[in-house]
Amino acid sequence: MQWEPVIGLEIHTQLATESKIFSGAATAFGAAPNTQACAIDLGLPGVLPVLNTGAVQRAVQFGRAIAAEIAPRSVFARKNYFYPDLPKGYQISQYELPIVGQGEVEIVLDDGRVKTIGVTRAHLEEDAGKSLHEDFSGPMGAMTGIDLNRAGTPLLEIVSEPDLRSSEEAVTYARKIHQLVRWIGISDGNMQEGSFRVDANVSVHLPGTPFGTRAELKNINSFRFLQRAIELEIERQIEILEDGGSVVQETRLYDADQDETRSMRTKEEANDYRYFPDPDLLPVELDAAFIAAATADLPELPDAMRHRFSEQFGLSDYDAALLTANRATASYFEAVVAEGVDPKLSANWITGALAAALNKADLEISASPVTAPQLAGLLKRIEDNTISGKIAKQVFEAIWAGDGDPDQVIEAKGLKQITDSGAIEQMIDAILADNPQQVEQYRAGKQKVFGFFVGQVMKQSQGKANPQQVNQLLKTKLDG
């Protein structure tokens, strides 16, 4: 029998508020160490936390986006543990009564399979500070520095059911949550800055037997590392079990440089944290009016938009999925189509030439040098045969470089397509006269020579001759 992996993810996404969850300190990334940590974040005696309403609103928005239960009453608890970057000696989190209850997320795998992943809960909590182990030294030599700027930053921890059965499913699910939190605007999802971090609980078992002992892989901040860490952990556990050993419940770290997972500490249970309701914070009670106001401006969600693109524009599921990968791309596509351009042609260019150029320049589509109206203008010139698809690529590059709008570029560079049948015929006649041997080969049944003639005509016309007309006229003359 084959071992079956069982995987659940805990995703920590930083909420896009300007101030922290229990204090007025700023949350901006990149400030000098310890310049954005106030008395509340430092846990100084006598200070009291005050809940940030914006964090609650964003949690409610996420809950609605995954069709989850929104708790009318939730409670903050103290999670007690000692670590240098946790000044109070406890983290304020939620335990028994989280703000978001059970929901679900649909993922589409590479082979086209659709799978529904359960979300157990999503709860609000504060982030800890950051320990700086590398490149930090003091008067006593090598030291660990503590930066408490991040302490108190609002997090939404999203806990999945153990429904994932492979590293591919885990990464697809993580990407879906990442897409969703950015789509509804509750987080920037910047993994390099730590705004989106993933813990993976991994175990293996033989189908039909109870789940195995799990290990937790902590603080993974890239989808590529997540996939690799899970694969390594699955291999490690299978090897232990097949050698007759037992998997230890523990927390492990993925080391990308060494391409290995390493033990950090024995995995704690909930009772080790001595959770109890935080006496400084009242329960959070939400009425229907608050929930309605918080979710009133939620945009059309990606799954709904993907289905609409397929039905309204006749796009394939693949194209619709690419276009709804993020909200900015979907908006760009709709802006192009609104100009009256064929949806399939628009999709091809946005997911093809434009995506490649943006990727090469490391730009988001929102910062594209080619605007949606400009791309629409370019595609209209393909549709009305002013330029060919090949010439359009030159025009696109010129627009990207800032040379002007499509019509200006076409005019300035003399790129208008030749559609005059008489002019094309003259070129064809001259080329056939200059290449009698190839004409003889074609008429003797060597069909591949046809491509040679097309190439010669396009070369003669500097790529401006209408390809359809060239093919039709050539065929008429060669077969006549």
TrEMBL record:
<comment type="function">
    <text>Allows the formation of correctly charged Asn-tRNA(Asn) or Gln-tRNA(Gln) through the transamidation of misacylated Asp-tRNA(Asn) or Glu-tRNA(Gln) in organisms which lack either or both of asparaginyl-tRNA or glutaminyl-tRNA synthetases. The reaction takes place in the presence of glutamine and ATP through an activated phospho-Asp-tRNA(Asn) or phospho-Glu-tRNA(Gln).</text>
</comment>
<keyword id="KW-0436">Ligase</keyword>
<keyword id="KW-0067">ATP-binding</keyword>
<dbReference type="Pfam" id="PF02934">
    <property type="entry name" value="GatB_N"/>
</dbReference>
<comment type="subunit">
    <text>Heterotrimer of A, B and C subunits.</text>
</comment>
<keyword id="KW-0547">Nucleotide-binding</keyword>
<dbReference type="InterPro" id="IPR014746">
    <property type="entry name" value="Gln_synth/guanido_kin_cat_dom"/>
</dbReference>
<dbReference type="InterPro" id="IPR042114">
    <property type="entry name" value="GatB_C_1"/>
</dbReference>
<dbReference type="GO" id="GO:0005524">
    <property type="term" value="F:ATP binding"/>
</dbReference>
<dbReference type="InterPro" id="IPR017959">
    <property type="entry name" value="Asn/Gln-tRNA_amidoTrfase_suB/E"/>
</dbReference>
<dbReference type="InterPro" id="IPR017958">
    <property type="entry name" value="Gln-tRNA_amidoTrfase_suB_CS"/>
</dbReference>
<comment type="similarity">
    <text>Belongs to the GatB/GatE family. GatB subfamily.</text>
</comment>
<dbReference type="InterPro" id="IPR018027">
    <property type="entry name" value="Asn/Gln_amidotransferase"/>
</dbReference>
<dbReference type="GO" id="GO:0050567">
    <property type="term" value="F:glutaminyl-tRNA synthase (glutamine-hydrolyzing) activity"/>
</dbReference>
<dbReference type="Pfam" id="PF02637">
    <property type="entry name" value="GatB_Yqey"/>
</dbReference>
<dbReference type="InterPro" id="IPR003789">
    <property type="entry name" value="Asn/Gln_tRNA_amidoTrase-B-like"/>
</dbReference>
<dbReference type="GO" id="GO:0006412">
    <property type="term" value="P:translation"/>
</dbReference>
<dbReference type="InterPro" id="IPR023168">
    <property type="entry name" value="GatB_Yqey_C_2"/>
</dbReference>
<keyword id="KW-0648">Protein biosynthesis</keyword>
<dbReference type="InterPro" id="IPR006075">
    <property type="entry name" value="Asn/Gln-tRNA_Trfase_suB/E_cat"/>
</dbReference>
<dbReference type="GO" id="GO:0070681">
    <property type="term" value="P:glutaminyl-tRNAGln biosynthesis via transamidation"/>
</dbReference>
<protein>
    <recommendedName>
        <fullName>Aspartyl/glutamyl-tRNA(Asn/Gln) amidotransferase subunit B</fullName>
        <ecNumber>6.3.5.-</ecNumber>
    </recommendedName>
</protein>
<dbReference type="InterPro" id="IPR004413">
    <property type="entry name" value="GatB"/>
</dbReference>
<feature type="domain" description="Asn/Gln amidotransferase">
    <location>
        <begin position="331"/>
        <end position="478"/>
    </location>
</feature>
